[in-house]
Design a protein that fits this description.
- Helices cover about 5% and strands about 20% of the residues.
- The termini are far apart.
Amino acid sequence: MRALPGYDPRCGGNCCELIWSEAGRLCEVDDPADAYHPPGYDYPDHYDVALDVQTGIVVRCLPVGGDPRSPWLENTILDVG
């Protein structure tokens, strides 16, 4: 999965959105120069994302390429009622 221009995360500005990306960083600014970008940081090329079939909840979102410090997510579904 890759965020493209026009990505409009619920919480923008690369604060806590699921797909950490340049598109997320730029979503809330009019001028790209106004968006903070950590020096020397490369965004992931894309993310390996998996959903739980029964709940639709993201259970894995792992960065592929880019900075090895990129945020990632893994969840375990313990019970479905």
